[in-house]
Amino acid sequence: MKTKSHRARPHAVPSPAPDATPSPRPLRILFVSSECAPYAKCGGLGDVVASLPKALRAAGADVRTVLPLYASIDRARHALEPAGGLQVPCGNGEINGCGIWRTVAAGGIPTAFVEHDRYFARDGVYADRNGDYGDQAFRFGLLCMAAAELCRVRGWIPDVVHVHDWPTAMMPAMLDAWRKTGTSRGFERTGSVLTVHNQAYQGYTHPSVLPYIGLSAPEYYTPDTFESCGALNLLKGGWVYADAVTTVSPTYAAEIRSEPAGAGLSDFVRRRGDTFQGILNGADYDIWDPERDPRIAASYGHNSLIGKILCKRDLQHRLGLALDDAVPVLGMVTRLADQKGLGLLRDVLPWVLGEMHVQLAVLGSGDPAAEEMLRDLQHRYPGRVAAVIGYSEDLSHRIYAGSDFFLMPSLFEPCGLAQMYALRYASLPVVHAVGGLEDTVEQYNEGSGDGTGFKFYAATAQAFHDTVAWAVSTWYDRPTHMTRMRERAMTVRFDWAASAARYLDLYRRVVSWRP
Ligand code: ADP
Ligand code: GLC
Q1: Count of structural domains, the chain
Q2: pLDDT tens-digit map of 260-273
Q3: 366 and 253 part of one domain
Q4: Are 74 and 130 in contact (CB under 8 A)?
Q5: Is 335 helix (H, G, I), strand (E, B) or coil?
Q6: Distance 439 CA to ligand 2 centre (A)
Q7: Of ligand 2's atoms, which has the minimum distance to the CA of residue 248?
Q8: 3-state class (DSSP) for residue 53
Q9: Cα-to-centroid distance, 219 and ligand 1 (Å)
Q10: pLDDT classification of 303: cutoffs 50, 70, 90
């Protein structure tokens, strides 16, 4: 059969068959971060950088992650494979030779690790026993440059680079500088998103790093850009140069628009207008779920809390607490940093232990005075207080599962994941109502028994003490309310899918600004 020739209708464009329509290329998102669980985690940042890419990929995005290869990362355990070398050009003309290792992280995320012994073959992520490393900007500057170079040589140019906190907040300015000097080499249209997980950590450093990270033009060191109080402020540069900025809860987004929560940068927050928003973190229920958590003594769900009693006994047994189902266990899993309300804990814990029939199980490390205070409490209250100073993923799960209440008297809390996990494990949070704690915990209603936790609004020892007392009296005097709250706490969900959809909307907006 003759077909109509193209010659006969020279300008006709044949309409493609419906099934031949090319589907749009998935958005390419590059995560560059100093932390990602389970490889390197100091706090919630590590959890988010592991679970948000999973949710984005499930929603159809093409996400890849680049991390430093710290000495602490066990290559065999995480199935890292060598993937060649990379010559990374720096702004000052230096070329750094790096090794690249790769693996596929949970959820199918291709993850690359930058090996560079001078910067990453150290015991800690940010610090060791002697304190913070002095060359942070060089270390994470190299990470950012290596991430870009890796994308170039692999021919995978991201639509959006998503950076996190001060360590990688310089990357949007690097993209800006490359565009202005015509050295983008493929990154001309790549947009940038900065997520601020904690406005209080800004990464102050010496400006001598600027040429190394390609920011030697004078515009990058002014009070309107990276300069703060005569030093280089890495986070501030992110606030100025990222195409869009997010933070990790709506309430914290509102709080940092003014001081003191803005930590000196509230002016820069307000200047962003609608290119800044709060998107609540999620919890990864593949990992944090008492119905299928291999780390806890017994599984349980909201229909039956018997397993939780077994988890409580297991915790009491392991930590040397008196075996007693009837006494409420107050749990904590935390970095011991000022942010977490160390002053309130120091004033209130002895007061609570002195007058209430409770046990306390704490896992944490950080501030030496706080560590000492907790050891001292354990010494003074044998069988009633267990203070484990250190970091243990395993024990953290057992504390969420084995405790009845979970204390978070944070002075500020950008989001907080610990209270989300505690809710899922039916350990009712007692929290200072700030940031993400305000957004995720529902206040107990003593009339109806509704709510998921206990909130106080003034950061005072009296308010914290009284709220712990309120929780403890609910345990002893209103057991039906306890049951009702626990059921509700276990069924509330902070799913990543909803938050990932908001990030995808944002990425699309950013892409539309760089046609
Ligand atoms: P932040 O990121 O400010 O530390 P989050 O509540 O967002 O606070 O996240 C804390 C994360 O770190 C949670 O996953 C918590 O279980 C974990 N974590 C904190 N301290 C320890 C510790 N000493 N051992 C194990 N996990 C810890
Ligand atoms: C920061 C914040 C914490 C938040 C976490 C993950 O460490 O202190 O509130 O949950 O980042 O975004």
Answers
A1: 2
A2: 999 999 999 999 99
A3: no
A4: no
A5: strand
A6: 14
A7: 12
A8: helix
A9: 38
A10: confident
Residue nearest to atom 3 of ligand 2 (CA): 416
Same domain, 449 and 378: yes
Q: What is the mean pLDDT of residues 409-430?
A: 98
Is 244 within 8 Å of 275 (Cβ atoms)? yes
Please report the atom of ligand 1 found closest to the CA of residue 393: 25
C-alpha to C-alpha distance for 364 and 59, rounded to whole angstroms: 35
Q: Residue 162 has which token pair? A: 């998503």
Parallel, antiparallel, or unpaired for β 231-233 and 204-205? antiparallel
Mean pLDDT of the chain: 94
Cα gap 507→63, rounded to integer Å = 12
Same domain, 208 and 238: yes
* Neighbour tally for 45: CB within 10 Å: 25
Sign of the dihedral through C-alpha 182, 185, 190, 196: negative
Any idea which ligand is nearest the CA of 337?
1
Whether the pTM exceeds 0.90: the reply is yes
Distance 190 CA to ligand 1 centre (A): 32
Distance separating alpha carbons of residues 235 and 137, to the nearest angstrom: 11
Pocket test for ligand 2, best of 35, 36, 162, 248 (most atoms within 8 A of CB): 248
What was the pLDDT predicted at 19?
55
Q: What is the pLDDT of residue 13?
A: 41
Regarding whether 189 and 77 lie in a shared domain, the answer is: yes
- CA quadruple 181, 183, 186, 187: dihedral positive or negative? negative
Query: By alpha-carbon position, which residue is closest to atom 12 of ligand 2?
Result: 197
DSSP H/E element including 204? strand 204-205
* pLDDT tens string 165-187: 999 999 999 999 999 999 998 99
- Residues 368 and 375 sit within 8 Å (Cβ to Cβ): no
Same domain, yes or no: 171 and 252? yes
Is the pLDDT score of 10 beyond 90?
no
CA–centroid distance, 473 to ligand 2, in Å, is 30
For residue range 101-156, what is the model confidence (pLDDT) as tens digits? Answer: 999 999 999 999 999 999 999 989 998 877 889 899 999 999 999 999 999 999 99
Ligand nearest to the CA of 199: 2
Tell me the residue range of the domain where 487 lies.
Answer: 306-491
Report the C-alpha gap between 477 and 144 in whole angstroms. Answer: 56
Query: Between residues 14 and 467, which one has the greater pLDDT?
Result: 467
Q: Is 413 in the pocket of ligand 2 (CB under 6 A)?
A: yes
CA distance 299 to 307: 5
First to last CA, the chain: 45
Q: Any residues with CB less than 8 A from the CB of 476 and at least 6 apart, and which?
A: 328
With respect to residue 174, please indicate whether it lies within any of the assigned structural domains: yes
Q: Could you report the per-residue pLDDT of 392-413, keeping only the tens digit for each?
A: 999 999 999 999 999 999 999 9
What is the rounded distance in angstroms from the CA atom of residue 497 to the CA atom of residue 38? 21
